């Protein structure tokens, strides 16, 4: 198969190469595209190195799949044109809520992928790990409402964000206040917490919080009341989510554990996992499963670059290549 990765030099783009190799995707020819500033950079693809080329649509050939790891604004402009060159699996938020674009998490709604009209959207990282864990619970017991507090790593905001974090922690290590001039974050992120991911809307919710509400219900085809609160934390890779579910039918802790143990893509922890432990893994870890009078508590952790982006995108291509 002929594969292109657009936005190849970014964090998600690089991870897509890693996942394609790791899952032995039949990519006979693979190309890496980014802007001019990344031309010549080398991307690891198993034992090979793929050189980044400048994206020039008029010079591109045709592909079986094009993985887009562009930012939202570039994706808005380029993805509709890339679709003329091959089926696009887009990681950005540009088309996720478009009724003509399926929003797919393979463990939850794989068949939607086959309804595509040239573009399939990969959901937001915090939404993917949430629906992998709660999808089976919703199917079995029905979820009435969901409260969620997220603890999201800096790599979720891209390469510049990770570089900024790595720079600021050098100050923290020597006991100095971090230099955050020109940062992509609204406040210092070294040894800090920022309760703002994306811009705030008129109702006070951030863009990330809005994504959790809308994307969760689009994927689950539900009307769950979602109450989110998203926080950026000084962690390199891996998002944590503290989730409290109110169910329509009551469920015991043992029933939830048994259900999740047999659910695809989920690992049930005896106690809990942390971001450091799950970095580089493809599964969603669920721990701290607790039954209370008010509902069920869960702690959900996953690698935002793997299952939260690259792995999910490659799984979508796997569904389509088999159909
Ligand atoms: N990071 C995550 O955990 C995560 C998870 C889920 C979804 N996403 C989404 O995935 C997308 C990529 O995220 P990321 O974290 O990988 O961001 P990133 O590290 O900032 O990478 C963005 C990439 O897009 C390229 N690019 C930008 N404009 C371009 C253009 N006009 N033509 C060609 N290439 C262009 C950049 O190339 P240059 O390096 O040459 O500028 C870079 O390779 C975003 O939409 C993000 O919201 C990210």
UniProtKB/TrEMBL annotation:
Keyword Magnesium appears in the UniProt entry: no
This enzyme's EC code(s): 1.2.1.11
Chain ranges of the Semialdehyde dehydrogenase NAD-binding domain: 2-116
The keyword Flavoprotein appears for this protein: no
Gene3D superfamilies reported in the protein's UniProt record: Dihydrodipicolinate Reductase, domain 2 (3.30.360.10), NAD(P)-binding Rossmann-like Domain (3.40.50.720)
Entries under Pfam families matching the protein: Semialdhyde_dh, Semialdhyde_dhC
InterPro entries in the cross-refs: NAD(P)-bd_dom_sf, Semialdehyde_DH_NAD-bd, Semialdhyde_DH_dimer_dom
GO molecular-function terms, A-Z: aspartate-semialdehyde dehydrogenase activity; NAD binding; protein dimerization activity
Record-level GO BP terms: amino acid biosynthetic process
UniProt entry keywords in alphabetical sequence: Oxidoreductase
Residues at the catalytic site: 125, 239
Family of this protein: Belongs to the aspartate-semialdehyde dehydrogenase family.
Listed NCBIfam families: PRK14874.1
Protein name per the record: Aspartate-semialdehyde dehydrogenase
Source species: candidate division WOR-3 bacterium
